[in-house]
Amino acid sequence: MSPSTSSENCIFCKIIAGEIPSWRIDEDDQSVSFLDVAPFHRGHTLVVPKRHVESFIADPPALAEITPAIDRVSRLLITKLGADGMNMFSSAGPVAGQEVFHLHVHLLPRYADTPGLRNLFGPKPVATDDELETVWRRLTS
């Protein structure tokens, strides 16, 4: 494992350990889910395994162990944010666009005012703490 992919240097491992603050909305024995600070859409959430695994194609496999959280958090986002749909994706490897080498699944609530795949990815401005707190409060209340 190269230094860029080691658990010691992994931003998600640091979030899981509480060394870096996050807008956590769900946690169980296997996973942690938190708001993306540069969301594509309101409520954009990352679901990550607690143990360090590079991607969904790396060994040992970890995608199945976070599936219950993906299901639970998807339903939470739809219910609490009033989303009209949901996209789910994960990238494996640099050529696929993976930037953080710790398995993570993006859950993107979708709204009727920006439908379809062409509106999935746009500019990713960093969300303000006020914006993240508003979404976090809706999800955790």
Can you offer a commentary on this structure?
- This is Histidine triad protein.
- Pfam families: HIT (PF01230).
- InterPro entries: HINT, Histidine_triad_HIT, HIT-like, HIT-like_sf.
- One of its GO terms (molecular function) is catalytic activity.
- Residues 11-117 form the HIT domain.
- The protein is built from 3 helices and 5 strands; from the N terminus they run αβββαββα.
- The protein has a single domain, classed as HIT-like (HIT family, subunit A, 2-Layer Sandwich).
- Strands 1-2-3-5-4 form a 5-stranded antiparallel sheet.
- The protein is α+β, with helices and mostly antiparallel strands and 141 residues long.
Short structural description:
The protein has 141 residues and is an alpha+beta fold.
Strand-helix topology:
Blueprint: H1 11-16, E1 24-27, E2 31-35, E3 45-49, H2 63-81, E4 85-89, E5 105-110, H3 129-140
Antiparallel strand pairs: 1-2, 2-3, 3-5, 4-5
Pfam family, one: HIT
Active site: 104 (tele-amp-histidine intermediate)
Domain HIT: 11-117
CATH superfamily: HIT-like
Strand order of the largest sheet: 1-2-3-5-4
Count every helix, treating DSSP H or I runs of 4 or more residues as helices. Answer: 3
Helix-and-strand structural type: alpha+beta
Quickly count the domains: 1
User: What is the fold named in CATH at topology level?
Assistant: HIT family, subunit A
Nearest-angstrom radius of gyration?
Answer: 15 Å
